[in-house]
């Protein structure tokens, strides 16, 4: 591994994603990416008695499928890096109970998806392990319960509100064995905390946009690349409010994003015309994880995309901090994926 | 640009620069020098505001409809059980609460509320919804710590400030010598 500039890790051995999975709930199953998901639950309860258990079931299912898709046995897995949005990251840690492998719990709110992938890739790239699982999850009802109001409480949400997706995405990272057509984890840019003073927890897109822009700017500064290098750059969950703000900020920074396709996982996962209840778009750890591990990886395997930069954005607030009037610190982590045949 | 770019593929070609086409807010500063005030100004044109007028109309229609329903129930009690309007008031409220709790339990009330806003929040049905939803949500944490401890999570402040307001009004009435007819 090599450090590029100040914030970017270049994985010199180019670890590969051996297998990945995306498991979602019923609402994401009605969205345009439904056919790319490995499993769709038809109810939010997932046959469990509590929302928390449902999220755990979701996570365990995704982990199991990712290991299966990687054609590994559970015993072969060496490390698990995971996190979620619950207090004390219970979904991830409780799912780790079943895996019984060395475990690192991480928290970066909705940026956890790429944070965990960056760390898992570092483990493999540095020779610290052969197989590492990265994963994260979110459940609409657990998040509503913890961060907002009881799920059945009738409150009117503003037009900037986002809808936490129900889903879990996991990926097994392994050593580069030179097999053609593999998807490589090439580099990761670790974000700085950005807080430009926004306090509205119902407007996270605008709060997180500067963090995404800062990380994208750092990525291109550190690597010396330009946006045109990538076929697609996606942010995690800026949604319909945050994405245009990010576009303006990037133009001010002089990053020519028009060279590439720039989109947001929170807008890709739902049918924004039909699924009006999502308001501004999707959010949550599972959002960038399921879109990346479900949709984007499948498109890369088909050859429709060769190089993709995923910039997962996270709002690091707690219910306590916003009730005390604190502004929302945000972070974004970027991971670059490339499909095979491009070894330098 | 650094001289070595180890992960560039041989097929990589610089993409031609296209003219920047973005909606701008007029804020010139870059991110590293931006203050919260600048950012607020920059982000404001992109942030849709709450449709206050539309919400008022919807709240008026839906809240009014709940009141008409309540009136209908009260009239029915008066006609069927031969009650006075005062006697019929309490069972009417009970019926409205029951309806609200049933709709909450079937997962309908929160969906209505997104359209109705204050129309479903202000009447007694909204109060019932706040208690029922909290009770349902925290059932998983047990009857005492879960349901008992959280049922008034949202409704609690309504009660606190209702009692405080009633106390202040009562003191004013006592000082002014108003009321006290019964």
Structure characterization notes:
The complex is a heterodimer of chains A (344) and B (182). Chain A has 344 residues and is α/β, with parallel strands linked by helices. Chain A has helices at 26-29, 51-69, 90-99, 112-125, 140-147, 204-223, 239-253, 265-268, 285-301, 319-323, and strands at residues 2-4, 8-10, 16-24, 39-40, 79-84, 103-105, 131-138, 163-164, 167-174, 183-189, 232-235, 261-264, 282-283, 307-315, 330-339. In chain A, the strands form 3 sheets. Chain A has a 7-stranded mixed β-sheet, with helices on both faces. The model of chain A has no long low-confidence stretch (mean pLDDT 95). Chain B is mostly helical and 182 residues long. Chain B is extended, with a radius of gyration of 28 Å. Chain B has 8 helices and no strands. Helices cover 63% and strands 0% of the residues of chain B. Chain B has helices spanning 36-43, 52-80, 85-105, 109-116, 118-121, 124-137, 143-150, 155-176. In chain B, helix 2 packs across helix 3, helix 3 (85-105) runs parallel beside helix 6 (124-137) and helix 6 packs antiparallel against helix 7 (143-150). Mean pLDDT of chain B is 86; it is low at 1-22. The chains are: A alpha/beta (344), B mainly alpha (182). At the A-B interface, helix 6 and helix 7 of A face helix 1, helix 4, helix 5 and helix 6 of B.
Keywords:
heterodimer; A: alpha/beta; six-stranded mixed beta sheet; B: 182 residues; 63% helix; 0% strand; disordered N terminus
